[in-house]
Design a protein that fits this description.
Layout lengths: L1 H17 L9 H13 L2 E5 L13 E5 L6 E7 L8 H7 L7 H5 L1 E7 L5 H9 L2 E4 L1 H10 L6 H7 L10
Parallel strand pairs: 3-4, 4-5
Antiparallel strand pairs: 1-2, 2-3
């Protein structure tokens, strides 16, 4: 069972990175997947318009907790196959100029990528207060929630025949 689950994770990550799924192209499909996962976790999640910010500043998803204490997530989603570069960091860092002190206290910034990032990328993210989720962790998140994802999303990911004992 463990070997089958590990093989499933490896194949799913390879399929996502290689575009061998039925997720919408241009990164939008991965944004929709992340938004659905956030809703499962109890957040409201809104995919932002590409014209929401000016210049390099950009966030793909804004999510807010629907639980007792308010928290806000600002997320940049990257559908990449190899390495995600520093442009993703620059997009979220540029949002600092646009936010208030009060918002910063209740806000976490995230880069969620299907790829990997370099150690230098991680160091810069830490110094900028940005959290990073790489491809392997993203796939773990998907697998942990296969029983809660919509059938349409499971179909797009090719996960319609996962034996429940693996989950």
């Amino acid at each position: 069972e463990t070997a089958a689950l590990n093989e499933l994770k490896i194949q799913l990550l390879s399929n996502i990175r290689g575009g061998n799924t039925y997720l919408e192209g241009g990164g939008y499909g991965l944004e929709k997947l992340v938004a659905e996962l956030l809703r499962i976790e109890g957040y409201t999640a809104k995919i932002q318009s590409k014209r929401e910010h000016q210049g390099v500043a950009d966030a793909d998803i804004v999510a807010e907790s629907t639980r007792k204490f308010t928290s806000k997530l600002i997320i940049q989603v990257k559908h990449h196959s190899g390495k995600t570069g520093s442009h993703a960091l620059a997009q979220l860092e540029a949002l600092d100029d646009l936010s208030s002190e009060e918002e910063d206290a209740n806000t976490q910034k995230w880069i969620i990528t299907s790829a990997n990032v370099s150690p230098g990328f991680i160091q810069r993210a830490i110094s900028s207060g940005i959290n990073v989720m790489e491809g392997e962790e993203l796939v773990e998140w998907v697998i942990e929630n296969t029983d809660k994802l919509s059938q349409a999303t499971l179909n797009k990911l090719g996960l319609t025949t996962i034996p429940t004992l693996l989950i």
